[in-house]
Automatic annotation (TrEMBL):
Membrane-spanning residues: none
InterPro entries reported in the protein's UniProt record: WD40/YVTN_repeat-like_dom_sf, WD40_repeat_dom_sf, WD40_rpt, WD_repeat-ST_regulator
Keyword Signal (UniProt): no
Protein name: WD40 repeat-like protein
Gene Ontology biological process terms from the UniProt entry: proteasome-mediated ubiquitin-dependent protein catabolic process
Lineage start: Eukaryota, Fungi, Dikarya, Ascomycota, Saccharomycotina
Pfam assignment, any one: WD40
Amino acid sequence: MSEEFVLQLIQKSLRELGYDAISEDLGDAIKLKRGTKTSLAEAAGWFLLQLKQGQYEAVEAHLEALLTASLPSPVLDLPQFRDPHAVVLTTLYLVKKTHFFEQLVQSPNKPQQQLLEYLRNQLLPLLDKLQARVTQIADSEFDFGHGSELNLVFDSLLLNQLNRESESALLLEFTTNHDKLTLVLASKYFFGQPIRSGNLITSARTLLTDTLLGKLLKNDKQMFDTSYDIPDNLLNTIIRQSVLYQKLQNAYYLPPRTSGEGKKRSDDEDLALTLDKSATQLHELYKTTLFPNNLLHTLKNHNFEVWCAKFSPLGRFLVTGALNGELAIYDVWDGFKLLKTLEPSTLNTQGFQPTDKRAYGEKSVIYCAWDQHEHYLVSCYLDTVVRVWEVTGLQQLTTKKRITRSMNDATTGEIKLASSFVLGQDIKTWTCEFLPTLDDTSKPRFIIGSPDKALKAYDVDGTELFDFYGNIDDDGDEETHDLNMKEDSPIDTAVEFEASLSSSAKNKLDNGLDKKLENNFNRINDIAVTPNGKILVTASNDRRLQFYQIPTSFNEEASTKRLASITLKGRLTSCSISANGKYLLVNCAPEELQVWDISGLSNLENPEPTPILYRRLLGHTQSIHVVRSAFGYLVDSTGEEELVISGSDDGFIYYWKLHTGQLIGRIKGHHGLCNSVDWNRFGGVGGSTDYGKLWCSVGDDKLVKIWGP
């Protein structure tokens, strides 16, 4: 970065901050320093800089000195012109006219008598000299036509108006009506050139240097090589970018999550945090103060292993499920106070009573999901029963009102089992997700996935609406986009091993592989639904991710189609989708998370909707157990999460940067397996607490832990 650019940047920044006098002193120092040099380009840079910054007196004094004393100019390369005085006169008139315009804009109440005196003493005499000089040129032996040389450096339309009659009338009109200045009048003042709305002074200066004197500047390319057209507030922009760069170098830095936080974390505070701290100090500051990895609450309401956890869509509640089948619901806004415990045997008259009595371990809660309005909760159990809970009464439990007889179940805090059902004889139900609600009158709908080759949609009354596997359009003929990761594929490993076997052994291997693939096909471990409710993702035992189009309505004509298929390396245990529907997070046992960009699938008309591997995240382990991971820290301004978090076999919780894949660190969360983590992504701000920064973890140690900044 050149010294001249830095000086010009500082000078302009001083003027923007209101320190005009200091800026002028710096300009004088720059001018003095450049005056000792013979470089035409450097001197010309001073000339343009003065005009752009409105330092008209210095420019006018220099041009007038050229006219009166015939001094050689270090600014204008005058020897190239046959009559340099005409060029100087025209340039001086345009500078003075622009200077006069700024005076009128800055001082609309200036006495008219003073304005008329400026016209008589400054502008009109100069115009007379210019007209006389042009006439003298026309009569000389170097007659090259009226303004023909001036036409090389000034616009012909401008020159045609440079006569006393038209200019005096225009200047008088402008002087009389300057207090009623309009863009039309301003444009007329500058020879019909357009004036941009906004800052008239900035527009006038730009018009002078880029248009009125534009040909003169282009005629001598050397003239302004060292003058820079510095954008407004550039110094502030440079400082912002420098601060942001310093922050992004720190693994624990997270941007403000909400606009309110952005205002609190002002630029001055960020600057102090960044420039006054060493790298080590910054690391500890972001890690201990701003990063949400501090243990806030330890909840001990479960007496058995806790297998799942789910924040509600509006961020108000948290539900956790345990080995004995209990669901515990907490109030996020009230310090995670326990609101309700739901037992798997709780039934109402609409409920389904299982015929066999199973042990606690076989009633374990495997997964649960909320509807978008927090009115229903559906839970999947190891006893194969799907239970749908109506939880509208939770709102009443969070308020302290006197209960009256006129209040119904929803208003008195009653929570009931709306329905319970099985998909079929001994058909397990391991995962479920609600679909976006069509309207306020329609019943909430959800999809159930089973390792026993079932994938169906239901409403909250337990009515089956749609069978995905039974209504696939041309599934046998349609080619799917299979992104088989060959370097890691278990099938490839088997094929390599096949080469060393006898023919009989090969036949046995082929039969075994076919049977294994057939047995695992469509055996679902987890599902996910995009926020717009258009795409269903399944993670199956055959190590495939399948992408299905969800019908807009579940009527008799409804059907689906498989959009794409991905074959991965490890056992797929769980999957989830980011808040904006762009990314898919997949757990691949035993030691990998993968993030896929599935935004291409959103365009259902795309002939080749191919997911793209975005990040591979390593560090955690999961051997034979299901470990659920989550996206976290949703930033309002971008609509994207910043983090990925995951539990692990060793009880540690790992966290990565989503967009870089960087493993930031790990914290000891539980003794034994950490089964699941979930982030309160849509939590709002209440008082001084940002509930969207809270997340939870659950484990085999029977504990539910709440984490945050």
